[in-house]
Design a protein that fits this description.
Layout (H helix, E strand, L loop, with lengths): L2 H14 L4 H27 L2 H49 L14 H13 L15 E5 L6 E8 L5 E6 L12 E4 L3 E3 L7
Antiparallel strand pairs: 1-2, 1-5, 2-3, 3-4
Helix pairs in contact: 1-2
Length: 199
């Protein structure tokens, strides 16, 4: 049944009821206007030619391909940044081993807090992702932030980080082998732990 016919039926029924005639007439008029608006919407949709539809589809496809290419370039740039960070850390360690630079040298007393914060920030930017001595095993004892907590616990490094996270095995006596299953912990929350030698 079309909207116009429906509106006429409603209008005919409303004429038989004199008490609610004005409300029924108003509803019939509104339904007719709604039908006209729906018809106009369909006409507007059909006005877009196939040429423009194809052109829009092509533009969307091109924009998606451009975004994917940009994403690939940014990922490559992030890999280069990681390489630079690694080289800077190697250079810092080489200088430290040669005795040119020492972390244990106390800062000058005349340094202000801003300068110290800048030095700290520069040192933090060169923290290594994984730097082990030759022949050192990956199962190094560390202190790591247990996920979803604010506490550091002893753990063994399960796998060195590929990008940002270490995979660590936390000490846990509730497991048969004494360690939890591997959990990922961000690099900044993993620090080396020196074992206390028992006398």
């Amino acid at each position: 049944m079309s909207w116009t016919l429906f509106a006429e039926v409603v209008a005919n029924r409303s004429s038989s009821r004199s008490s609610s005639m004005s409300a029924d007439t108003k509803i019939a008029e509104l339904l007719t206007e709604l039908h006209q608006l729906i018809k106009q919407t369909q006409e507007e949709r059909s006005r877009t030619s196939p040429y423009y539809r194809t052109k829009l589809r092509g533009l969307y496809t091109t924009a998606k391909a451009d975004a994917e290419a940009e994403c690939s370039i940014l990922r490559h740039a992030l890999d280069k940044i990681a390489d630079i960070k690694s080289l800077l850390e190697e250079r810092r360690l080489a200088a430290k081993m040669a005795g040119v630079y020492s972390d244990s040298d106390p800062p000058r007393k005349t340094m202000r807090r801003g300068v110290l914060m800048t030095l700290l920030q520069q040192s933090a930017m060169t923290l290594p992702l994984w730097i082990g001595k030759p022949g050192e095993s990956k199962d190094q004892l560390v202190l790591a932030l247990y996920p979803q907590t604010t506490c550091f616990y002893r753990a063994l490094i399960h796998t060195p980080p590929h990008r940002d996270d270490y995979s660590v095995l936390f000490e846990d006596t509730s497991y048969a082998d004494g360690y939890s299953p591997p959990l990922n912990v961000a690099q900044r929350y993993v620090v080396t732990c020196k074992e206390n030698k028992k006398k």
